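Predict structure. Chain length: 478.
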Amino acid sequence: MPAAGVRHWARIDPLNRENIILSILVLGTMMGAIDATIVLLALPALTASLHSDLASTIWAIIIYLLVIAVTTTQFGRLGDIYGKGKLFNLGFGAFTLGSLLCGFSPSISALIIFRVIQAVGGALMQANSGAIVADLFDAARRGKAFGYISFGWNMGAMIGIVLGGILTTFIGWRSIFFINVPIGVVALALGLIYIKDNVTISDKVDLLGMGLLGTSLSLISFGAINFASYGGSSSDAYIIVSGMIGLCAFIAWERKAKSPMLHIEAFSNRVLSASILASLFQSLGFLSVTFILIMYLQGVRGLSPLIAAGLLIPGYLVSSMLSPKMGSLSYRFGARAVATIGIALMGIAIIIYLTLGAESPYYVVVIGSVISGLGGAMFWPANNSAVMSNAEPRQYGSISGLLRLTSNIGALGSYVIVITAATLAVPRQLSFEIFIGTSKLTGGISDAFINGIHAALLMSLSLLFIAAILSVSRGKKR
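Prediction complete.
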């Protein structure tokens, strides 16, 4: 039986309609993931073409992650109130428009502003896609559906890395944005036809709660990014502390608000709360590993960004191909077992990476990538299904947004961890150049940088250990 509230979608030929809607959601997820990574390999060309300094150009990546991290929870709540499908389609439109404007950017400042528009669209899609899946599919099929969403994310991240290098090399950096426009127009047209809303909640928008959360996350993220990019300062510390105080104020307000943005009592459900926290620590612990490996392959081994990314493709392929199957297994065996085994596999991959040295064979990276890809295929669909299965239907949007928030915070935190670890071994400007693949280390500096990489990997492993404990302690999925 379809989940409650999806009769309008499934009135005619339900199976085909569900498949079309899921395909649109996967495409939206894929495009958002592509543009989180596609700019990475275009940074040298962007810097030269727009006559920018490297630190400013890196903000073209960071601002995208920052806006998505800050807005996903708010946009999920708005989806509950005004319609998840409406906001998802609005997101596709904003993302497509932002991509077009990015392609025409005359300066680095304009590019950063247009990336904000693009990120707002991506956040609207991310925040509401999981909620639409929860509305559309019953518990028995939800894990597999989330597996396809994970497939879209992994394929997008992989395509972004590869496509960014190819398009930038043979056509030019503007093409990495223009390519989104025809795809976005077609997907938006399909979304307007097939993704409809007939279930919303009658509630008011918690403007104060949204403002407190958005401001708090912005302050924390901005302070942490400044710390990684320019070095620690007292002003950054004040900014981060102010953000944490703001989070405390947000939680206090949500406890007494008549129409809260997040219903705090929902977190009394152990499965839901432990699953969201497991997602947070898994993201913090493992998203940084990709950055670490790329910096190792470029800075220590001297590979081009495109070839370095190519060594990681097997892991993305394994994760993409197996995610739907692993999502089905989570319904059969339970999210706790499947997700926890997935985290354990990621930990094993990190242990393999800890053996890397200046002359290690490249197949070590490939083996670790495949093992971590299998782990990701097991963790993400199972964990997402556990979260949404334990959320109340009236909170699907806000909980889906919160779940995406944890992954986006992980992406930002990963950048901070990697750049900070790198700058302990080499000068900050040199670490930026390694990050984008324009410098190679030699001699004793290379050895020191490897030690810094190992320290960052150990930090990632400890964060994954916390995620595993949370995953085990979640209990059985409802």
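Summary: The domain at 14-205+259-472 is CATH 1.20.1250.20 (Growth Hormone; Chain: A;).
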